[in-house]
Amino acid sequence: MSDKKTFVLRIDAQTYDAIEKWAADEFRSVNGQMEWIIHKALKDAGRAVKKENKEKPGKK
């Protein structure tokens, strides 16, 4: 099961429309585009969280 969290985001209609068009241009959903934007902003700011290397027991 995914450990993603859900939350409500309120933005004005013009901003949503711009993100929706950008997402369509990139072949992503609006949600996927927002995740990408947030991840990129965190990475650019040097605040990206490094994902843990989750190996299965017994694998090296």
Automatic annotation (TrEMBL):
Superkingdom of the source?
Bacteria
Any one Gene Ontology BP term: regulation of DNA-templated transcription
Q: Per its UniProt record, what InterPro entries does this chain match?
A: Arc_rbn_hlx_hlx (IPR013321), Ribbon_hlx_hlx (IPR010985)
Full protein name: Arc family DNA binding domain-containing protein
Organism lineage string: Bacteria, Pseudomonadati, Bacteroidota, Chitinophagia, Chitinophagales
